[in-house]
Amino acid sequence: MNATQASDFFVRCIEKGRIPHAFIVHGGTFEQRYDVSLKAVKILECEKSPNVCETCYHCRAISSNNHPDISRVKPEKRNLSIDEVRTIKQDMYMKPYSGRYKIFIIETDWMQAPAANSLLKILEEPPEYGIMIILARNNKNFLPTIVSRTINIRINPEIEAPDVDKKNSEYLEKIIQSAERKNWRNFFSMCAEIAKNVSREEFENIFEIIVMTARYNLLKDTEITDKNLKGTNQESIINTVSHSQIEELLDKRTYLRFNVNSRIILERIILELISPKWRNWQTR
C-alpha cells in the first residue's frame, strides 16, 4: 500500500475502536516509512482524531519532534539492543503525560536475540495506552513470533539502497576488481579481512549492495535506469549479469539467517557474479 492507504488504515482502526499495540511498517524508502509513522501518530493523538487538524497542541508538538508521549528510537547501525528495549519498557509502563497514547517509533532492521525476546514480552503484555511502530527495510530479520504479534504494513513501490560505510564500499570494489583480474591471493585475503572486520548487520548491507548492483546492470541492459543505486561505482565493474544469477543471489540471502561463515558467502557470490555459467545442454 502507499502512504495514503496506510493512513486510512489507522483511521479505520480508530473508527472501529480497535487500536493494535504494535505495527511493523516495512518496504519503500525510509522517508516513506517515517512519513507513515508521522501521520499515524497524528491520527492517534490529534484532538480531532481520527481527523488531523495540524493546528492543535498534539499535531504541532509531533511536527516539531517535541511531543512528550512520542519517543523516537534510533539504534546505532539500526540494530536494536537489549538496553534500548529496557528503556522502552521502563518508559512505556508510565502513563501518558498529555496524549491518549505512549507511542514509540523504532527505526531498526535487526534485533539480537536478547533484545528480541525482551521486546516480545512487551508485545505479550502491553499497557492499554502503549503503541510501538517499528520502521524496517523488511520484516524478514525479525523473529516470527514478533512478526505474528504485530500488524505488518508493507509500503510500495520504491526500493531503498542500504547505507554502506564508505570504507567498506571501497573495499568491496577492490575485492571485485581482484576477482576480475584473477588476482586470487589478493581476492581471498581481502575477503577474509572484510569478513573479520564487519558485523553481521554490516555484512547484510554489503550483500544488499551487491544484489542491487547486479539488478542495476540487468535493468541497464534493457535501458532502464534505477536512481536508487548510490554511493558506489560497482556497476562499472560487474558488467554482465543474468536473470539466473540474480535468482541465485537472492537464494543465498537465506544463508545470512543462519550462522554461516560470511567470508565463504562473500567469496561465492562475487565469483558467481563475475563468472557467467556457460552450459551446453546438448553435450551433457
Written description of the protein model:
This protein is an alpha/beta fold and 284 residues long. The chain has two domains: 3-155, P-loop containing nucleotide triphosphate hydrolases (Rossmann fold, 3-Layer(aba) Sandwich); 166-274. It has helices spanning 3-16, 30-45, 57-63, 82-92, 113-124, 144-148, 166-180, 184-197, 200-221, 243-252, 262-274, and strands at residues 22-27, 70-73, 79-80, 102-107, 110-111, 130-136, 151-155. The strands form two sheets. The chain has a five-stranded parallel beta sheet with strand order 2-4-6-1-7, with helices on both faces. The radius of gyration is 22 Å and the shape is elongated. Mean pLDDT is 80; it is low at 229-237 and 277-284.
The helix content, as a percent range, equals: 40-55%
Query: Which regions have little confidence, pLDDT < 50, spanning 5+ residues?
Result: 229-237, 277-284
State the secondary-structure class. Answer: alpha/beta
Number of helices: 11
Physical arrangement of strands within the biggest beta sheet:
2-4-6-1-7
Average pLDDT number: 80
CATH-level-2 architecture of the largest domain: 3-Layer(aba) Sandwich
Helices and strands, in N-to-C order? HEHHEEHEEHEHEHHHHH
Overall form: elongated
* β-strand amount: 5-15%
- The number of distinct structural domains comes to 2
CATH topology description of the largest domain? Rossmann fold
Strand segment tally: 7
